[in-house]
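Deliverable D2.4 — example input (structure tokens):
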């Protein structure tokens, strides 16, 4: 696998077979529609670029070959497989358009199928078939898709074709699809920490000269659990702003359904590698030094805190994970950020991110339907409005609807925590997470939601359920201040729902969870409670579950 990041620089202008016009565009790059009668210039290969494969450094783009046409397409298949946040649809299409523009400017031939093109068949396979016929292409190539759904679709499409086809590496990840499974072998639990150390050694990250972990330990997580006191201030939002109103009109005219806020003021995602690199630099300079300390904090007035907001740029491959973590390590070596912060950040990217991808490929397609705790309650309607009296959920969901982003603790310990405690169906929750977040692609979203957050995989990822009562949420921030509920009360009309639901969750699932050594203390505490108290908690939890819609 090549991880050469210098693709852009390696483009040799001498090898370009075309002359660019003064505005940087190539008039011959405007390809005809699939139904056009004009015969296109001869083509031997079509290369499909998916919306999350905007990897300018990929070796495909190092040389210009005018017998190759790069195909990008905006299709209803991709807008409609789940109900998406408006920003996700807009930003992916806008970034694809920008990528097509860059390829054309570099001399490549590009066929861009816009959402409202008359010839658009709205499915990747049907468009590919039509384009292959239109160009008389002998061969079609695509990069390994990250999602099982697309991988299966393209394989099936290829198998039905008479022409040659080939799949190439996306040259993005630091591990091959099956590598985690090979490393973990027959182990019952695939511990992330084990994998993470392997990755640190393999990519020589944060190591001393003798190969030991920098600072004498692999993991500084225990330093990273502080409540944010209000200072240092949350850095100003460094992300670019774009006006996508014309594209939004096209999306609406085409009848695509969506939810969430499409307004420019909150729509601040990079559209290309240059913008993504600027975001990376701004994060390193202003937020990384405090990333570790406040990684788990919750703050009503500081929705981004010191998080990087780089997940979108990483997942659509504008940035390479190695360059991001190496940049963070360089900041530590230059004395610009503490080791605990840099280690925490590196662990998320070379540890968790690669690890969940390995889980996904090792266990799909069956993984998507797992529901080990047999939870079946539909999501309350307020997941689509934020309209709940529980302030923590109101804040986290409203922010998600407004900005298509929530940080990890909001996703895990606010929304996911409540979903697991109240018995929501993991698959319905998965569809919600997949639709709402700007960075949500199934390979990363599904293991996080079903595995880490909902324990629907029976504990493959998480050594214990990520649940808490109100005490944790109160400790980690200011969400409880001004809430209609009281975090200290366990039963009664003003009692915080997290409290009774928390104890009831452990009671209900005792047959599967009680034997877990990491839960010994929880069960000891539960068993010490007087039966009357347990009964009151049970009754209150039942009542809460009966009126989830009005909580
Ligand atoms: P930061 O806090 O700045 O972290 C840095 C980077 O580390 C992120 O950009 C991301 O690439 C990586 N990272 C951090 N945690 C994880 C993780 N658990 N798994 C994989 N990568 C991680 N992340 C997604 O990219 N897409 C998703 O669809 C997604 N769904 C999630 C669903 C649930 C229920 C949970 C609990 C987590 C989910 N995550 C997902 C992981 C994490 O919440 C986001 O990556 C993070 O909030 C993105 O914001 P950031 O870029 O500011 O991250
Ligand atoms: Fe959330 Fe309970 Fe705190 Fe309200 S009191 S913000 S519901 S944890």
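Example output (designed residues):
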């Amino acid at each position: 696998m090549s991880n050469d990041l210098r693709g852009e620089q390696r483009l040799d202008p001498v090898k370009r077979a075309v002359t660019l016009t003064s505005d940087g565009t190539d008039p011959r790059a405007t390809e005809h529609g699939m139904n056009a009668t004009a015969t296109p210039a001869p083509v031997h290969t079509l290369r499909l670029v998916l919306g999350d494969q905007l990897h300018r450094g990929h070796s495909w783009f190092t040389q210009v070959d005018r017998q190759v046409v790069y195909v990008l397409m905006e299709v209803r298949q991709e807008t409609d497989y789940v109900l998406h946040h408006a920003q996700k649809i807009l930003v992916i299409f806008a970034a694809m358009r920008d990528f097509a523009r860059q390829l054309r400017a570099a001399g490549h031939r590009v066929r861009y199928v816009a959402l409202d093109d008359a010839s658009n068949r709205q499915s990747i396979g049907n468009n590919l078939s039509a384009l292959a016929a239109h160009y008389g292409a002998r061969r079609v190539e695509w990069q390994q898709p990250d999602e099982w759904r697309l991988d299966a679709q393209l394989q099936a499409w290829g198998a039905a074709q008479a022409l040659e086809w080939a799949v190439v590496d996306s040259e993005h990840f630091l591990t091959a699809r099956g590598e985690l499974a090979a490393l973990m072998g027959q182990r019952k639990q695939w511990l992330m920490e084990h994998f993470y150390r392997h990755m640190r050694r393999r990519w020589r990250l944060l190591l001393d000269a003798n190969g030991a972990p920098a600072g004498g330990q692999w993991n500084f997580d225990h330093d990273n659990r502080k409540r944010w006191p209000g200072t240092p201030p949350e850095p100003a939002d460094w992300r670019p702003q774009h006006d996508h109103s014309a594209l939004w009109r096209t999306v609406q005219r085409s009848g695509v359904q969506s939810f969430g806020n499409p307004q420019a003021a909150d729509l601040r995602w990079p559209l290309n590698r240059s913008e993504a690199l600027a975001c990376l630099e701004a994060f390193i300079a202003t937020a990384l030094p405090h990333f570790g300390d406040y990684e788990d904090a919750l703050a009503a007035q500081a929705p981004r805190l010191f998080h990087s907001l780089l997940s979108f740029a990483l997942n659509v491959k504008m940035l390479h994970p190695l360059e991001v973590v190496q940049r963070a390590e360089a900041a530590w070596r230059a004395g610009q950020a503490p080791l605990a912060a840099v280690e925490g950040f590196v662990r998320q990217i070379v540890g968790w991110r690669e690890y969940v991808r390995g889980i996904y490929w090792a266990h799909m397609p069956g993984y998507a339907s797992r529901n080990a705790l047999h939870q079946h309650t539909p999501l309350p309607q307020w997941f689509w409005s934020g309209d709940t009296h529980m302030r923590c959920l109101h804040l986290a969901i409203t922010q998600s609807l407004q900005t298509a982003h929530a940080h990890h603790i909001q996703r895990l310990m606010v929304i996911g925590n409540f979903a697991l405690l109240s018995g929501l169906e993991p698959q319905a929750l998965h569809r919600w997470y997949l639709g709402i977040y700007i960075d949500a692609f199934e390979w990363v979203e599904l293991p996080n939601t079903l595995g880490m957050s909902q324990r629907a995989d029976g504990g493959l990822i998480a050594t214990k359920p990520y649940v808490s009562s109100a005490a944790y949420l109160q400790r980690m921030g200011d969400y409880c201040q001004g809430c209609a509920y009281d975090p200290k009360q366990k039963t009664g009309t003003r009692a915080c729902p997290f409290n009774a639901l928390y104890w009831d969750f452990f009671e209900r699932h005792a047959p599967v969870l009680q034997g877990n050594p990491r839960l010994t203390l929880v069960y000891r505490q539960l068993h010490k409670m007087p039966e009357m108290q347990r009964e009151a908690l049970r009754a209150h939890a039942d009542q809460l579950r009966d009126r989830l819609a009005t909580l």
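The domain at 179-296+305-354 is CATH 1.25.40.80 (Serine Threonine Protein Phosphatase 5, Tetratricopeptide repeat).
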